[in-house]
Amino acid sequence: MGDFDFAIIIKSLPLLWKGMLLSLQLFAIALAGGIFFGTLLAMARLSSFKVLSYPAAGFVNLIRAIPFIMAIFWFYFLTPMLVSKFTGQQGEAVGPFTSAIVAFIMVEAAYYSEIIRAGIQSVPRGQPWSAYALGMNYWQAMGYVVLPQAFRNMVPIMLTQAIILFQDTSLVYVVGLKEFLGAASTAGQLTGRSVELYSFVAVVFFLICFGASKAVKFLQVYMDPTRQRSVKSPVPTGSLPLTGDQGGG
Question: Which CATH number fits the domain 7-125+134-231, given the four candidates 3.80.30.20, 3.40.50.720, 1.10.3720.10, 1.20.1440.230?
Answer without folding.
Answer: 1.10.3720.10
